[in-house]
Design brief:
Order of helices and strands: HHHHHH
Structural class: mainly alpha
Helix content: over 70%
Oligomer: single chain
Mean pLDDT: 81
Radius of gyration: 20 Å
Largest sheet: none
Number of strands: 0
Shape: globular
Strand content: under 5%
Low-confidence stretches: none
Distance between the termini: 62 Å
Length: about 170
């Protein structure tokens, strides 16, 4: 049960950590210090904008609340689909705490840590740890699958634009 879930999370982390390091090294090789300087300047401009534009802060807050609501309701639907009845206000708390745990863990992307905390807290309220862990893993897989598809589409479009620009420069 719990031991198998912990071992699975460890194996997933062991497999993906080296892969992420390789990808990160390749990305770092492509990004120049000039691009990093521009990104820092852009960050500073955005920070100044947030200081002066209060409407923008409210819009960002509203968008963040909408995202957290969608995340929590998605988890709630998955739990209800396997017959676990967890009150919605507790789902909001469980999702927030599990995300925080995943963020402060030393595992890239909180992989496994977020799901373990979600499963532990959910199992205290309804169902078993295994059921809740399965919901957490399934939800993460579906969300990452969607992100992967959208990221792949964006990357293909970006590569096409980059290819067109480089052909123009080379001519």
């Amino acid at each position: 049960g719990i031991a198998a879930a912990v071992i699975a999370a460890g194996l997933i982390s062991a497999i993906f950590t080296p892969l992420l390091k390789i990808i990160g090294a390749r990305i770092a090789a492509v990004i120049s210090s000039e691009k990093i300087s521009k990104a820092v300047e852009s960050f500073e401009e955005t920070r100044k904008l947030y200081k002066t534009d209060k409407i923008l802060i409210l819009q960002a807050l509203a968008l963040t609340l909408a995202a957290w609501t969608c995340e929590s309701i998605g988890q709630l639907f998955f739990l209800q689909s396997i017959g676990l009845d967890v009150p919605i206000e507790l789902i909001f708390a469980i999702v927030a705490i599990s995300w925080l745990a995943g963020t402060v863990s030393f595992i890239p992307g909180g992989l496994g840590a977020r799901e373990a905390v979600f499963a532990l807290l959910t199992a205290l309220i309804a169902g078993t740890f295994e059921q809740a862990f399965a919901v957490g893993i399934l939800y993460r897989a579906i969300v990452y699958f969607e992100i992967g598809i959208l990221g792949g589409i964006s990357t293909i479009k970006w590569i096409g634009k980059w290819s067109e620009k480089s052909e123009t420069v080379l001519k």
